[in-house]
Design goal:
This protein has 3 domains: 219 residues, GROEL, domain 1 (Orthogonal Bundle); 103 residues, TCP-1-like chaperonin intermediate domain (GROEL, domain 2); 150 residues, GroEL (3-Layer(bba) Sandwich), CATH 3.50.7.10. The C terminus is likely disordered. Strand 18 and strand 19 form a beta hairpin. The two termini are 42 Å apart. It is elongated, with a radius of gyration of 30 Å. It is built from 16 helices and 21 strands.
């Protein structure tokens, strides 16, 4: 017999917020859709930009998905999972973040419709897994092979990456520089092409138009020579890379030197001077005519180096030192005593030049540079920052293409082919998973539909034309509204963008669908708080 007077048992603190069942699912899906909606208008060549103002009133103007989401300070736990999709895409490829987020939002939107029809979330998650595996197979089949010698295709990939961004006006020139830089650091190995994009340093300077951007086959240092009497230009440079200071070391313990005679003081000073002079002599004897030091250089050493016509820079970042070692073939030396001439790096030219209002050191014309620097220019700080992001996207796209060895046409063509292929796959299934696979197929169409919407075109007309198209790479021309053969027209993207975006979007959608209970601890517990009214910066989000 039930006792109605039994007190309820509380296992959580009183101020804990808990949402369960369908309410929890709908709340999470709504948050994810809101994130997707925030970046959706930035997709494609006709995408719009966002102006982001932080707490310090610093302004960022961009249409780069991961930059937007990072600056928005999103708090909702489910929304943060969508932001992770963008970060994963950025780390894996360097581009396609908006595509991944928009796909994740659309997958959850389609799932919400099926949840209303009493389809169980576990069935939806299983159907999405099946669809994602089939989508990856279809993408691998449709990918076109690309090699490091396909300069035209590589240039078109870089141009596609920069179209619709701040670099678009000078995309031809920038694309050529990107192709040269990526090919310069690419290395053929047994298991394919290896490219470390960390070896391509992108520097920005304000004051000139983007068409004045240049590629340094070596390293560009944001430094100046340490003494005005040093030569400003050194040809056939022999470079010593030091990560030890060219100074008198302080003792490890506190010590006092007692001097009772002026002659002793002079002897002490002479001894210090001799020690510093011996450092310079050691450098001179090795044949080095350029010194790059990670730490400090004593004023007296600077004087002696200048007398020997040796060019020197100091306080160089560790990352730049490592890049210099790759570019010049030299070794970073930790102790001058153990140094020999075989450790020297080589460069055809080392020069100091004023860029904008700052001096910079160019170490270029290296024989076999394994590290390069791309100097991008722009009229204002905001412009050059956006150009730098666009160039970084182009570098990431080329690296991803050459690693995988495959590319696909753009303009929404692969997504339309996936939608058709997944619908055919759904027809081979039985049970409710078929509905989830069909929803996945419909979600793929969000990319061409969004491209059309952002270009001011009728999305229904655009999708109808794409479905009627017969070409393998039938995409949408956002400038005319007509269908276009994207591959023949140079609209090409890395296969990796598509495979990674679909994989990440499907995984996060499955994870969110499986959550049926959200427990938010009190403020003192340190757990994230669900802001009243939803997510910061998302009006109308409840």
């Amino acid at each position: 017999m039930t006792n109605s007077n039994v007190q309820p048992i509380f296992i959580l603190p009183e101020d804990t917020q808990r949402t369960t069942g369908k309410d929890a699912q709908r709340n999470n899906i709504a948050a994810a859709k809101a994130v997707a909606q925030a970046v959706k208008t930035t997709l494609g060549p006709k995408g719009m930009d966002k102006m982001l103002v932080d707490s310090m009133n610093d302004v960022t103007i961009t249409n780069d998905g991961v930059t937007i989401l990072n600056e928005m300070s999103i708090e909702h736990p489910a929304a943060k999972m969508i932001v992770e999709v963008a970060k994963t895409q950025e780390d894996a490829v360097g581009d396609g973040t908006t595509t991944a987020v928009v796909l994740a939002g659309e997958l959850l939107k389609k799932a919400e419709d099926l949840l209303d029809q009493e389809i169980h979330p576990a069935v939806l998650a299983k159907g999405y897994r099946l669809a994602e595996v089939e989508a990856q197979k279809l993408l691998q089949e449709m990918g076109e092979p690309v090699t490091v010698n396909d300069d035209t295709i590589l240039k078109n990939i870089a141009i596609t990456a920069m179209t619709g961004k701040g670099a678009e006006a000078n995309k031809e020139k920038l694309a050529e520089l990107i192709v040269r830089a990526v090919k310069g650091v690419a290395r053929s190995e047994e298991n394919g092409i290896k490219i470390d994009i960390e070896n391509i340093k992108v520097e920005k300077r304000v004051g000139e138009s983007a068409d004045k951007s240049s590629l340094v086959e070596g390293i560009l240092l944001d430094k100046e020579r340490v003494h005005p009497s040093m030569p400003s230009k050194v040809k056939e440079a022999k470079i010593i890379l030091l990560d030890c200071a060219l100074e008198i070391k302080n003792t490890e313990i506190d010590a006092k030197i007692q001097i009772t005679d002026p002659a002793q003081l002079q002897a002490f000073l002479d001894s210090e001077e001799k020690t510093l002079k011996d450092m310079v002599s050691k450098i001179k004897e090795s044949g080095a005519n350029v010194v790059v030091c990670q730490k400090g250089i004593d004023d007296l050493v600077q004087h002696f180096l200048a007398k020997e016509n040796i060019f020197a820079v100091r306080r160089v970042k560790k990352s730049d030192m490592e890049a210099l070692a790759k570019a010049t073939g030299g070794k970073v030396v930790s102790n001058l005593k153990d140094f020999n001439s075989g450790d020297l790096g080589e460069a055809g030219l080392v020069r100091e030049e004023k860029i904008g209002d700052e001096e910079m050191v160019f170490i270029e014309k290296c024989k076999n540079p394994k590290a390069m620097t791309l100097l991008v220019r722009g009229g204002t700080e905001h412009v050059v920052e956006e150009i730098k992001r666009a160039v970084s996207d182009g570098i990431g796209d080329l690296a991803a293409t050459l690693r995988e060895g495959k590319a696909v046409g753009g303009a929404g063509a692969p997504e339309m082919k996936l939608a058709v292929g997944l619908r055919d796959f759904a027809n081979t299934l039985k049970g409710r998973e078929q509905l989830a696979v069909q929803a996945f197929a419909e979600a793929m169409e969000v990319i061409p539909r969004t491209l059309a919407e952002n270009a001011g075109l009728d999305p229904i007309d655009a999708l109808t034309k794409l479905k009627a198209g017969t070409a393998k790479w039938c995409g949408i021309n956002v400038f005319t509204g007509e269908e276009i053969n994207s591959w023949e027209n140079g609209i090409i993207e890395p296969l990796k963008i598509k495979t990674q975006a679909i994989s990440s979007a499907a995984e996060v959608a499955e994870m969110i669908l499986r959550i049926d209970d959200v427990i938010l601890s009190s403020q003192g517990g340190g757990a994230p708080q669900m802001p009243p009214g939803g997510m910061g910066g998302m009006p109308g989000m409840m």
